Amino acid sequence: KNEVEQSPQNLTAQEGEFITINCSYSVGISALHWLQQHPGGGIVSLFMLSSGKKKHGRLIATINIQEKHSSLHITASHPRDSAVYICAVSGLSYNTDKLIFGTGTRLQVFP
Amino acid sequence: DGGITQSPKYLFRKEGQNVTLSCEQNLNHDAMYWYRQDPGQGLRLIYYSQIVNDFQKGDIAEGYSVSREKKESFPLTVTSAQKNPTAFYLCASSIGASVGQPQHFGDGTRLSIL
Q1: Residues B76-87: tens digit of each pLDDT
Q2: Does A48 lie at the interface with B, CB-CB under 8 angstroms?
Q3: Of B67, B63, B46, which Cα lies nearest the Cα of B55?
C-alpha cells in the first residue's frame, strides 16, 4: 500500500462543475502539498498546508490531520484546469524536506 | 524572474552511454532534488543536496550520480549502469533544510533510449 493514496485516478468534468480530488496518507506529516502538472510536464506548487483550509482563486485545499486526509476543490471548473494534480507529504523527519508523492489525479475539463 | 531551468527538454541516449541532465536555479535555494517520474507511479527521489559540496542518495540512486560544486547547479548523470533510464526527470529546489518547505520544480527532461 502506498503511503500517499489519491482518488480518483482519472476525472472528467464539464466546464463549470465543482470538482473534488482526495488524498489520504498513512504517515505522520509536517505538511501536505498540492501540485499541478501540466501536459508539458512542468510542475507548479499550488498549496502547502499543515492544518485547516487555504484558498487561492477558484482552488480550495483542506486537511484533516486526525483523519489523515486532504481534499482539493476546484469551483467553476474551466478547460484550462485540465492537468494532473499531485498530492505530496513532508514526513516527520528532521533536517530535510523530502516529499512522498501520490500517483496523481488526471483531470480533464470539457467545454 | 527567478526559477529553475532544466536542459535539454528531450534527450536520447544510446545504450552504454552516460548522459548528463542540467539543472540550474537562481532562487538562492540551498536544497536541490532530482526526481524520476514513470507512468502510473508517483515521483521518486533519486538524489538530493541540502548544501553545496554535499549530497545524499534518495530512494532510487543506483545507476545515477550527481555533483553540487555550485549552489545554483545540480547536474544529474545517468550512467550506463542504469538499466531502465527511459523516464521523465524533474529537478526541484527549496529554501533549505527545514521541514515542510515548498519545492519549486523545473519543466523536466524526457530521456529516451535509442
Answers
A1: 999 988 889 999
A2: yes
A3: B67
List of chain A residues whose C-beta atoms are within 8 Å of the C-beta of residue B44: 101
- Point out the least confidently predicted range of A37-46, A60-69, B29-38: A37-46
Q: Which of B33, B42, B44 sits opposite A102 (nearest CB)?
A: B42
Confidence of residue B97 (pLDDT cuts 50, 70, 90): low
Cβ of residue A65 closer than 8 Å to a chain B Cβ = no
A57-68 tens-digit pLDDT: 999 999 999 999
